[in-house]
Design brief:
This protein is an alpha/beta fold and 351 residues long. It contains eleven helices and 15 strands. It starts with a strand and ends in an 11-residue tail after the last strand.
């Protein structure tokens, strides 16, 4: 059962409603929403309890969802959530748009960023990606430029007008990354880093939550629940491949998880065809398939000098491959009732 308190509810009224739930064997946990408090209980209670809670002072409405009582579920919010990134001049994902986020895996240098971002912006991407804090499997691999990388990303954002997403790996960095970017990315290796989820949930920035490489859809949605419980409704999911026995691809892209997540949750779902397949020649076909199966957008690695890339060069599209993919993506998106998303104010013309 989810109890939505009215924005004017007093602390005493919220406590009274909680007490009523507890008296009936439920264990309500407070959650934040835009302007009100929610009381979320895993159990659904009886119809009589729902009716009496609904009549309690300060209660706006009571939602009882068949199955799990979740803020991420379509039972709580039947319509697709639209997440706006980069403020009113930015982009919106969810609904009828199809958002392509592209850029290098890692931010490496001012020159690398300018060259790659020109390709990505000219090709029609709606948003930029680039890692400043890199969670690398080996401690001897390039770990990212850190704070200096955030500055380079911000430079590209003001040059092009494209909002930026970048990964945050430590709870203590959330505030800084949130200040200098438009969207926080939580990577596959941190999907169940609950301290990080809570901090990102409280940051006020939209969050891109990648699926853990060995996480079930249920675990992925529960990780999103942590973000929403902290009052962050601007959550976007990203399927990025799961571990399987096959070594031809880096991971196994689970497109059925996209359609299933779209059925279960109102949150937008993106696909990362780069980290999942690990190979440029598979990025095109999987991008088209993602658009066809109902994904709300893509997260694509692009690099103009893959051999010298400091991270994941082997899977990056080059300029020609990216431009070609964008040309082929438009008609597929259109066939499923979508249009490619562009920021409301594009400033590349001024570059
Ligand atoms: C990335 O997108 O840069 C990344 C590290 O992805 P993942 O967490 O999916 O491996
Ligand atoms: Mn990478």
């Amino acid at each position: 059962m989810i109890v939505v308190m009215s924005p004017q509810a007093t602390t005493e009224q919220t406590e009274l409603a909680s007490a009523l739930l507890r008296d009936h064997g439920l264990t309500p946990v407070p959650a934040k929403a835009a302007d009100s408090t929610l009381l979320v209980s895993e159990g659904s209670g009886t119809p009589e309890l729902a009716a009496s809670v609904e009549h309690s002072a300060g209660v706006e409405r009571v939602v009882v969802i068949p199955g799990s009582q979740r803020l991420t579920s379509r039972g709580f919010r039947p319509h697709d959530t639209r997440v706006t990134i980069g403020g009113q001049d930015g982009v919106t994902v969810g609904g009828t748009g199809f958002l392509v986020i592209a850029g290098p895996c890692a931010v490496e240098s001012p020159q690398q960023m300018t060259t790659v971002v020109d390709v990505v912006a000219d090709g029609g991407a709606g948003m930029l990606r680039g890692g400043a804090f890199k969670p690398r499997t080996s401690p001897y691999s390039f770990q990212g430029l850190g704070v200096a990388g955030l500055a380079l990303l911000a430079e590209q954002r003001s040059r092009t007008g494209l909002p930026v997403v970048t990964e945050v790996v430590a709870p203590s960095d959330v505030e800084r990354v949130a200040e200098e970017s438009d969207m926080l990315q939580i990577g596959t290796r941190n999907m169940q880093n609950f301290d990080l989820l809570r901090e990102a949930g409280a940051s006020g920035r939209p969050v891109l939550l990648k699926r853990g490489m060995a996480a079930t859809i249920e675990e992925w949605l529960l990780a999103a629940e942590y973000l929403m419980q902290m009052g962050n409704g601007d959550v976007v999911l990203c399927e990025r491949g799961i571990r399987s026995f096959d070594r031809n691809t880096r991971f196994t892209l689970d497109l059925s998880a996209v359609a299933e997540a779209k059925r279960l949750t109102h949150l937008p779902v993106l696909v990362d065809p780069s980290h999942s397949t690990g190979q440029p020649h598979l990025v095109g076909p999987m991008s088209l398939a993602a658009a066809a199966c109902g994904a709300d957008g893509l997260l694509i690695d692009v690099h103009t000098n893959a051999r010298s890339a400091l991270c994941d060069g082997a899977q990056a599209l080059d300029a020609a491959q990216f431009t070609d993919l964008m040309d082929r993506l438009g008609p597929v998106a259109e066939a499923v009732g979508r249009t490619l998303v562009q920021p409301r104010s594009r400033s590349l013309a001024q570059v």
